[in-house]
Design brief:
The protein is 54% helix and 11% strand. The chain has 795 residues and is an alpha/beta fold. It has two domains: 307 residues, Na+/H+ antiporter like fold; 335 residues, Rossmann fold. The chain has an eleven-stranded mixed beta sheet with strand order 3-4-2-1-5-8-15-14-9-10-13, with helices on both faces. A two-stranded antiparallel ribbon has the order 6-7. The chain is elongated, with a radius of gyration of 31 Å.
């Protein structure tokens, strides 16, 4: 690459003098081209989806069918896609598309997960790039010899290395989303690794080109400073814009247009200086403030067009770039010395090196990172996918567009398409065949390690319930660095006059709607206020459905988001005057259905407003929380959840264990003090359930009680009467009581179901909700998820 060479990052718009070459208006022709590619993409997706193939694979195949290799080889379709005017506009529109989805990828990237997994993702990225580079350099002599490359050898080898080593983050991002792994650890790790690979190669190539073209160094510095200035300005502009229209749910269209124009100006300036704008635009999205309605508005306006329109056309365009040697016209393009055999040989070698290099590098890194084999193979397959950076790199090198290097360009373009298609098919097939290996297994809290990410889903119907849900989220988040992902879902019942077919779930692609709009505004304001004060981010979603379908939609959302527990509001709440008000039997019906069908653990929260649990963040008075332990899997699940509550600095947790007097008289208890001051209890003549209780309690006491973080109390009771008396005292002394729903056979609560009004809350939970006892504490009842064989059976 010589100093001062010109690169084509953006194809310039043609002059009007060329308009006579096209039979149609160029803009109309461009939209017809995109429409045809979009239709073909969706047709092939409908055909290949039943066969287990993902959307990107189908869309790339659609582009290949329309490419010069097949349908566009000659005839009317060839003229249709090779029109001079429309081709220029089409390439410019592809640039705009790339800006949009790179910004959206930055907005949607899980920054907290990316920071936690940075070391692992970086090691995988480095190993894969090094492995691919070494293999490509080792076979460079074959590449140069077979294609008879005499000039620009260093630059051609450099381009080959980047093409073989690169991974297209937009393709991986869409692939992971299509396979419903975007909320899984392995899916997010794949996206993070792909981003690191592409950003690193992009920055490395830019710096290398800059140092070789010294006149561009100042441009890089100025554009980097301009990007940094916009990022800093956004930290102040985004919150400020959110205050302009306090009565509106979203920011105005003019404000959205302002951000989009700034992004386009920055990307155009960068591309006009012969540099790639992918990294700066991604960084703008990644560093965009995440709280407030400005962020929500940008997401809602970009998600639908990008996922449903831009990306299918983009993937189709990748497939369209397939140009096999036999498809080129003109005798001047044929190599008389070795024909097409050498190009096909090099094409096969590049595809093989791309796949082999990624597989070897990724598997090597995953082995040291202790990633399971099936996840390592999945990572190796999906990271082989190529994309626009490679295509742009080949197109932007002028010498590759002239003979004899035109053969090199066509070979590289075809290798990018074939490698992406083959790796996509391989990834989809592996995901389908090993579906049980990707099933969400963290569906309970008891087996969930405290130092790993906890994903929770809180449901609300009204703004009043939002305050209680946020208080619970706050209790589980001891600091903004706590590895916890909280999702808040507003449930809106569809009016009965609407037909079932109109039921709709707004998870990612729904814009403003007419149902629950006023409540949504209040809920958003409450969440924004909490996030601004505590820096704890809460992701928001909406479910709009008929009453009969709410349970199914909610269970599907819990499964898609891979949460470990779902929090539901109780169908009653305590008013300011102390009276209990029923919010509707519909809520109770939904709660009962979710308890039976939920794919994870469930918690039902009864808020007692001012007398009950308050948000601990920012509170000067510590909240006193009691965990009532009677035994059984539900109580163990509730105790496991209490581990996160115990870590909050503004919460004092007390573990109260209920023991039966008659059992204590016949049991043999031995306590021993170890050098680490751990207290162990060994109880004989107990059944398997009690042994599990004691084992879990021992671990909890040695970790939290011995360190002084949790107070431990034992209460001796004989029957339900004594139990009810103790429970009443506890309910008057604490702001929150956490209890398991309870097991069927428990001597200390036997017969209490005779008093039950709400069996779904369990005997103890129902007792704590009794209005006659004047209990002031809020109540959280937890039911552990019951695993079944169907949980591990592919659907």
């Amino acid at each position: 690459m010589v100093e001062g060479q010109q690169r084509r990052c953006i194809m310039p718009l043609p002059s009007l003098n060329d308009a006579t070459k096209d039979p149609l208006n160029p803009l109309n022709l461009m939209f017809l081209q995109m429409g045809l590619m979009l239709v073909m993409s969706h047709v092939f997706y409908l055909i290949l989806k039943p066969l287990g193939q993902s959307g990107p694979v189908a869309q790339i195949i659609a582009g290949m069918v329309l490419s010069p290799t097949l349908l566009s080889q000659s005839g009317a379709l060839h003229s249709f896609y090779k029109a001079t005017m429309s081709l220029a506009y089409f390439n410019f529109l592809v640039f705009l598309f790339r800006v949009c989805f790179m910004f959206l990828i930055g907005l949607e990237t899980d920054f907290s997960f990316m920071k936690r997994s940075l070391r692992c993702a970086l090691s995988i990225a480095v190993c894969s790039v090094v492995s691919c580079s070494l293999l490509m350099i080792s076979f460079a002599w074959l590449f140069l010899k077979v294609l008879h490359i005499q000039s620009n050898q260093t630059d051609v080898i450099l381009i080959d290395v980047i093409v073989v080593s690169n991974t297209a983050s937009p393709v991986v991002y869409r692939m992971v989303s299509d396979l419903k792994l975007d909320t899984s650890d392995i899916g997010r790790l794949a996206v993070s690794t792909a981003l690191l690979i592409e950003l690193t190669l992009n920055i490395g190539y830019t710096l290398m080109y800059t140092f070789r073209s010294k006149h561009n160094f100042l441009d890089v510095f100025l554009l980097s400073s301009f990007t940094l200035a916009i990022i800093i300005a956004n930290w102040y502009l985004v919150p400020w814009f959110g205050t302009w229209y306090p009565k509106e749910k979203h920011i105005s269209k003019a404000q959205v247009l302002f951000f989009i124009v700034i992004i386009l100006i920055l990307s155009t300036l960068i591309e006009s200086r012969e540099l790639s704008s992918a990294v700066p635009i991604f960084m703008l999205g990644l560093m965009f403030p995440r709280e407030g309605k400005t962020y929500r508005t940008m997401l809602q306006l970009l998600r639908f067009p990008v996922h449903e329109f831009i990306l299918p056309v983009y993937f189709g365009y990748i497939g369209y770039r397939l140009t096999l040697p036999h498809s080129r016209n003109g005798a001047e393009e044929k190599d008389p010395e070795h024909g097409y055999a050498g190009q096909y040989l090099i094409l096969g070698v590049i595809v093989a090196l791309s796949l082999l290099g990624k597989i070897l590098g990724v598997l090597f890194a995953c082995r040291f990172a202790k990633i399971p084999n099936h996840h390592a193979i999945f990572m190796a397959c999906i990271l082989c996918m190529k994309g626009h950076f490679g295509l742009q790199l080949v197109d932007s090198y002028p010498e590759l567009q002239q003979l004899p290097l035109k053969e090199v360009a066509d070979t590289l373009l075809s290798a990018i398409v074939i490698t992406t298609l083959f790796s996509g098919m391989l990834t989809s097939s592996f995901r389908r065949r090993k579906e049980t290996s990707f099933v969400h297994t963290q569906t309970t809290i008891e087996s969930h390690p405290i130092d790993t990410e906890l994903r929770i889903l809180s449901c609300v119907y009204s703004p009043r319930q939002t305050t209680a849900a946020i208080s619970l989220i706050s209790a589980l988040t001891s600091s903004p660095q706590t590895p916890l992902t909280s999702l808040l879902t507003q449930i809106v019942e569809l009016p009965k006059k609407k037909k079932p077919k109109d039921a709709h779930v707004e998870a990612e692609f729904r814009h403003d709607d007419d149902y629950g709009a006023n409540d949504s505004k209040e809920i958003n304001d409450t969440v924004d206020s909490f996030s601004k004060e505590t820096k704890v981010l809460i992701q928001q979603y909406r479910i709009v459905s008929s009453l009969s379908n709410i349970c199914q939609e909610l269970c599907d959302a819990a499964e898609d988001f891979r949460v470990s527990i779902v929090f539901l509001p109780f169908h009653k709440h305590q008013r300011i005057d102390g009276k209990i008000k029923n919010d509707g039997e519909e809520i109770r019906t939904v709660n009962q259905k979710v308890l039976r069908q939920s794919p994870c653990s469930v918690g039902i929260f009864m808020d007692r407003n001012q007398t009950g649990f308050q948000q601990p963040h920012g509170s000067e008075i510590p909240q006193n929380v009691a965990m009532l332990f009677f035994g059984g899997e539900d109580d163990r699940e509730a105790l496991a959840l209490s581990r996160w509550v115990a870590m909050h600095p503004q919460i004092h947790l007390t573990l109260i264990r209920f023991l039966r007097k008659s059992c204590l008289a016949h049991s043999q208890v031995t306590e021993a003090s170890h050098r680490e001051n751990e207290v162990l209890m060994s109880i004989t003549n107990e059944d398997a359930e009690n042994e599990s209780d004691n084992t879990f309690l021992e671990e909890f006491r040695s970790r939290y009680v011995a360190s002084g973080e949790v107070t431990y109390i034992e209460k001796e009771v004989e029957d339900r009467g004594e139990t009810a008396g103790v429970v009443k005292e506890i309910g008057e002394s604490y702001s929150l009581c956490i209890v398991g729903k309870g097991r069927a056979e428990c001597p200390m609560t036997s017969g209490m179901n005779d008093w039950e009004e709400c069996p779904e809350m369990g005997s103890v939970g129902d007792l704590l909700l009794c209005a006659d006892l004047s209990i002031t504490a809020s109540v959280l009842v937890v039911q552990k998820h019951r695993h079944s064989l169907s949980d591990f059976t592919p659907h």
